Amino acid sequence: MLSYNVELDGKTVLVTGAAGFIGSNLVMRLFHDFRNIRVIGVDSITDYYDVNIKYERLKEIELLNRDWTFVHASIADKDAVERIFSEDRISVVVNLAAQAGVRYSITNPDAYVQSNLIGFYNILEACRHYEVEHLVYASSSSVYGSNKTVPYSTDDKVDNPVSLYAATKKSNELMAHAYSKLYNIPSTGLRFFTVYGPAGRPDMAYFGFTDKLVKGETIKIFNYGNCKRDFTYVDDIVEGVVRVMQHAPEKDNGEDGLPIPPYKVYNIGNSHPENLLEFVTILQEELVRAGVLPKDYDFDSHKELVPMQPGDVPVTYADTTSLEQDFAFKPGTSLRDGLRNFAEWYVKFYNTEK
């Protein structure tokens, strides 16, 4: 196991995408775990999905009454990023701001170029000029594309993305590697696998299915239900991020006297792919249990098996060996526990109890 070399107590941390699903949970966890920590959050709060959920997440953070500053801005705005870094001595950056979603990237590519490429470049430039101790950034399991080798290892070649979203995330890893090499910036990329949980993203399957079932609409199960996903509960993702933040890849020089890139990439996934049909079965059981749907709900009449969609892959499966070896951590929240927590949140947030 690696020893921690980044102290977070008393430091200033920048979390981009702070109104997002992972970002907001990370901010609350940092305030819970560390003393005298200052957190600056930045988010553009786009209307890609219901902004009320984003504002509710921010309200929860504000209720903690800690040293918290929120900046409503896009990381694609270079001047805004420059102001944030120039006004505070930022020690660690966690870049979670990104335009997410595979299917949306097919119809709205510009959003991905702006946030995921230009925005990430602005963050890298700021880290270069203001000498942060550690840059941690979100990559994605989507970089593996239609990789035939499972489980997915960070040693696998990922040169064949099947969506623009995946291509931007792979580009982030390449850009971070170049900046680590050229400017000796310690950076760690995290490939997240299908994150879910309370107050999550409404465009994700579990959330979208729930919305449709509540309205009596039909849910479409892609690839005729023959997809498998490595569903990872948000608390497990945050646990991994917090541990990784505290160890920056070590700086060192090679035989040529030039820096060896202080650069690392990890998978964070549950390492237990679930069949989509089994996932839907558990979801509907937990929705009934929580009172989101009535006990006599006719699920069979609200399900439609359809072909695979462009940009999708049949399976995601994380090899987390490196994460376990370096940080003694392996995500382990069961799908049933995670979906139960989501269903109970859904009842409270939308007041849908039947």
Automatic annotation (TrEMBL):
<dbReference type="Pfam" id="PF01370">
    <property type="entry name" value="Epimerase"/>
</dbReference>
<feature type="domain" description="NAD-dependent epimerase/dehydratase">
    <location>
        <begin position="13"/>
        <end position="269"/>
    </location>
</feature>
<dbReference type="InterPro" id="IPR001509">
    <property type="entry name" value="Epimerase_deHydtase"/>
</dbReference>
<keyword id="KW-0520">NAD</keyword>
<dbReference type="InterPro" id="IPR036291">
    <property type="entry name" value="NAD(P)-bd_dom_sf"/>
</dbReference>
<protein>
    <submittedName>
        <fullName>NAD-dependent epimerase/dehydratase family protein</fullName>
    </submittedName>
</protein>
